[in-house]
Design goal:
The chain contains eleven helices and 13 strands. The longest helix is centred in the middle third of the chain and has 29 residues, at 167-195. With 343 residues, it is of the alpha/beta class. It is globular, with a radius of gyration of 25 Å. Helices cover 30% and strands 18% of the residues.
Length: 343
């Protein structure tokens, strides 16, 4: 049986189509549904092109970078290989899915989110008499725009320096670039959680030893965490973002040494706080800081573009100073769904 992928004409123009990725363009030309029940089932259109040119990108038997440039058609596949490796690095240890309530794709740099900020009376579940007017929840657009930021790195390497490198090893360097880009997006997200998105919606700030939080400044006890947890009604504190020093304080709590918690950590590698929240440590959070949030209501991630590479340069073997970028921004949804505790 003849397959379309074997004679598909590839060119750089496949990268420049608005609203569609290179893989989506390939899928339109060579749909995966045509391969059901065949030996190629389970491969996407790009992976079938790798198979067509016999390019192995991972494993001990991976090919060298130069293999992409044996023909003009196979060279067109190289930018997508770079983008996929970078994307894989962004997805490794990615905390954003754990703190974003929604992800919105947006083609532009300035985005206006929506908001609904109910008052105390609006949160009460009151009985409505027959014929009476139902309570209202108002949803409106934000006054100020949410600005998206382009984050990226330059790939600085000559073709001569990398042409004989194995793709499996080269992917490691590309994944690291992805990890750096994702770290920048996480820092943006944490800044919005704490300071808001410019719409007067900064997170409420608490200090151990002051106001509603008991204890002594500089220390953190289980009782302090309970006081912090109590500030979230009607939201649920189901996620904690903490700095390294706060993580040490949590791990040294007697309540945290519960045998079941230890067994969980040893069996799955996942840590949970004594109050049932998912515990996420990151150096993107400042020292002595703990951010509690209801991940279902706190943050919207606005994605302006996925991983973008300068495909013209890469196809033409001009690797030096080729930009790899990703555009994202963040909008605060419900201000009280994220709160900050300073130790």
């Amino acid at each position: 049986m003849a397959y379309r992928f074997d004679n598909l004409k590839l060119d750089k123009g496949m990268y420049g189509q608005s609203g569609r990725s290179f893989t989506q363009v390939l899928e339109a030309e060579d749909p995966s549904e045509h391969y059901r029940g065949s030996a190629l089932e389970g491969l996407d259109a790009y992976q079938r092109q790798l198979k067509r040119f016999d390019i192995k990108v991972k494993g001990a038997g991976s090919d060298v970078v130069e293999k992409f440039f044996r023909t003009a058609d196979s060279a067109v596949l190289f930018p997508e290989y770079v983008a996929r490796a970078v994307r894989q690095g962004m997805e490794e240890s990615n905390l954003l899915p754990h703190i974003a309530a929604a992800v919105t794709s947006f083609d532009g740099m300035d985005y206006r989110s929506i908001c609904s900020v109910p008052g105390k009376s609006d949160k009460e579940l009151r009985r409505v008499e027959e014929g009476a007017e139902l309570p209202q929840t108002q949803i409106r657009t934000r006054e100020n725009l949410v600005r998206l930021h382009k984050r990226g790195r330059l790939l600085v390497a000559s073709y001569e320096a990398v042409r004989w490198q194995r793709l499996d090893l080269f992917s490691v360097a590309l994944r690291q670039i992805g990890a750096y880009i994702n770290r920048m997006h996480l820092e943006d997200a944490i800044d919005v959680l704490i300071n808001g998105d410019g719409n007067s919606n900064a997170a409420p700030q608490h200090q151990v030893g002051r106001g509603a939080i008991g204890g002594t400044a500089g220390s953190l006890t289980y009782s302090d965490l309970v006081d912090f947890w109590a500030q979230f009604d009607p939201y649920e504190m189901n996620t904690l973002l903490v700095s390294g020093d706060v993580m040490r304080k949590l791990l040294n709590m007697e309540e945290f040494r519960n045998p079941l918690t230890g067994l969980n950590f040893q069996g799955t590698g996942r840590l949970t706080a004594p109050l049932g929240a998912t515990l996420l440590r990151t150096s993107a959070v400042g020292g002595g800081t703990l951010i509690g949030l209801d991940k279902h209501y706190a943050l919207e991630m606005v994605q302006g573009s996925d991983v973008t590479v300068e495909y013209d340069k890469l196809v033409d073997r001009q690797l030096e100073r080729a930009a790899i970028t990703s555009i994202s921004g963040f909008a605060k949804l419900f201000p009280e769904a994220a709160q900050v505790l300073k130790v």
